[in-house]
Write a structure and sequence with these properties.
Layout (H helix, E strand, L loop, with lengths): L3 E4 L9 H18 L7 H19 L5 H17 L5 H12 L12 H10 L3 E7 L2 H10 L3 H4 L3 E4 L4 H11 L6 E5 L2 H11 L2 E5 L20 E4 L5 H16 L1
Parallel strand pairs: 1-2, 1-4, 2-3, 4-5, 5-6
């Protein structure tokens, strides 16, 4: 039974969050140094940046300039709070620091190629559905030659939500009973998949971005699994197919 399988990219197939955390740590430590006379802690900076970052994503989606802008807005917040005279030079430093995250080389999750090879060899149709800006996401796709698995079946959306996934499913004429969404984000991968009535596999991350953590109030119509490693995906899907065939018999 051929399946249609949509994969998320960031923090499902390739690492992403850990690079943002590294840059945020540098930002928080720099801010704590600049505001040391006011007793500002790095954790307080992280908390405010997270608050501003998430609020912006709700409005702008996954726009690259938003991340460095969250550094600037955090800086301005504490400058106003403590009466610190802000400077264009300091803001420029923070802007460049925020943008630097997009220049870091990403690395794949363990068993990425083996997992995609196994699913493709089994005859399943693989799709890539990712949030972000085309230039940045295409750079990752090309780095790992992911076109060999997904071909033209690649969807990049700034806003990754229920409506976006539903549009992809409808436009592709997918059989929902044989369609899967695989990703790490409860908000942008799992809830939209369950809402669309397709199967969902949640890939649990060791440390998850707060934006991705939401409650699930949708009743699954198909399979809903939680896994830890990519290598667990093929046998999980094969087991589901086997159970489905047995029920038909």
């Amino acid at each position: 039974m051929k399946q249609t399988i949509l994969f998320d990219l960031d923090d499902t197939l390739v690492h992403c969050n850990k690079y943002f955390y590294r840059v945020i740590d540098r930002f928080a430590n720099l801010m704590a140094e600049w505001f040391r006379d006011h007793g500002l802690t790095a954790q307080a900076v992280r908390d405010k940046q997270t608050e501003i970052d998430i609020a912006g994503v709700h409005v702008l989606g996954f726009k690259s300039e938003h991340f460095p802008q969250s550094f600037i807005e955090t800086y301005r917040y504490f400058s106003t709070l403590y009466g610190h005279t802000s400077s264009a030079a300091e803001e420029d430093t923070l802007w460049k620091l925020g943008l630097s995250v997009y220049e870091l080389e990403t690395e794949p999750y363990p068993f990425m190629e083996e997992t995609l090879d196994r699913l493709a060899s089994a005859g399943h149709e693989l799709h890539l559905y990712t949030g972000g800006e085309p230039l940045i996401q295409r750079r990752k796709i090309e780095r790992f030659s992911l076109e060999r698995y997904f071909g033209s079946r690649i969807y990049i959306r700034r806003h990754k939500n229920v409506e976006a996934l539903e549009n992809i499913v409808r436009a592709g004429g997918f059989d929902r009973a044989r369609t899967w969404m695989i990703g790490n984000s409860i908000r942008t991968d799992i809830v939209p998949a369950l809402t669309a009535g397709i199967h969902a596999i949640h890939m649990k991350a060791e440390t998850e971005w707060l934006y991705n953590i939401v409650g699930i109030d949708v009743q699954p119509k198909g399979a809903f699994l939680s896994l830890h490693r990519l290598s667990e995906i093929p046998p999980a899907i094969e087991n589901h197919i086997r159970q489905t065939e047995e029920e038909v018999v």
